[in-house]
Amino acid sequence: QTDPPTIPVEKLFPDGHFPVGEIQDHPGDFNTFRTTSDEKRALDREQEDLYETLRHAAEVHRQVRKFAQGLIKPGLKLVDLCSQLETKNRELVVESALARGIAFPTGCSLNHVAGHYTPNSGDQTVLTYGDVMKVDFGTQINGRIIDSAWTVAFDPQFDPLLEAARAAANAGIACAGVDARLGEIGGEIQEVMESFEVTIEGKTYPVKSIRNLNGHSIGVYETHGSKCVPIVKTNDQTKMEEGEIFAIETFGSTGRGYVVEDGECSHYAKAADAPNVPLHLPRAKTLLDHITRTFGTLPWCRRWLEREDGGSATVNPKGAKQEKYLLALKNLVDTGIVTAYPPLVDIRGSYSAQYEHTFVLRPTCKEVVSRGDDY
Question: Could you tell me if residue 4 is inside a domain?
């Protein structure tokens, strides 16, 4: 690969075989047969195309985040970080309408904001030395999504907070597997997370798992599938099942360990079960057509609507920049056709850290596809 990367990832692996993720065994004595079972190995081989698609998207994620890690330093405008990261993502995945591209907006949430923040146009926020930034972005190929995130802090006093979230994510991944119970995984994550404390400006805080955030199963073109992986202990007896794809994400906070929606909204998605409501506002109809054509049910942000291509050069090669759309967007949200996802915030003055990986529960093993040498 060049530096900075410019060669599409598929060109680097012309045989269609992409780097395999980290392989772990499924935990539990009842799963030991899986590594040697001929039946499970045969089932595994049948899914090879799916695994290669996930590995392809994961390799794009690794190369894009390595590029982003080279950009991130104090003084960087968050809008510049996002636009450069997203441009690189489109380039390396070889964006093609809904078949491949960005899976969701680039989250770059700072400090007490845990998630769902990306700058809207006009937001001139600059990254500073004292910030703790969660970078959460996704790639997708044929609707197969890689969702992975890490945290950046320049001041070493925040290191234990980052280490708590990272260790908790790894603990959660380690005890995930076929027939593992979701509530117990949450308990493991919480136990590791809350064994850490962090001293900031001379005051010591316990690190808390943010109890109303969670990991999730991943469906086709569906970042948040039907199953939730808690990050605190719950009595949810639901089991993980063979063939499922999950993102385990952990959030540690020095605040209350609880988030609420607050602040200007940037993230939106068309509801998968959008009601068939008559729209009386002509502008709302045209905006909805644009959203459906350009994003389907994948999440998007306001910045993308305002691009010359309206969010995708391959869907709208002649341009489709959306202007004067806010009233129409409000109408779509109010009717339930589009869901708004405002920033998720803990108490002001607190700090939060996040780590996240995507893995697939293969019949024979667990493959952490988004693992890299960075995290």
Answer: no
56 flagged as catalytic: no
Annotated binding site for substrate: 116, 224
Same structural domain, 211 and 114: yes
pTM of the prediction? 0.98
User: Is 2 within the bounds of a domain?
Assistant: no
**Three-point CA angle 37, 39, 44, nearest 5°:** 95
Annotated binding site for a divalent metal cation: 136, 147, 216, 249, 356
Instruction: Please check whether residues 81 and 98 belong to one and the same domain.
Output: yes
For the segment 34-84, what is each residue's pLDDT rounded down to a tens digit? 999 999 999 999 999 999 999 999 999 999 999 999 999 999 999 999 999
Same domain, 130 and 70: yes
Domain annotation covers residue 207? yes
Query: Is 216 an annotated catalytic residue?
Result: yes
Task: Examine the domain organization and report whether 151 and 296 are in the same domain.
Answer: no
267 is catalytic: no
3 assigned to some structural domain:
no
Active site residue 147: yes
Residue 323 is among the residues annotated as catalytic for this protein: no
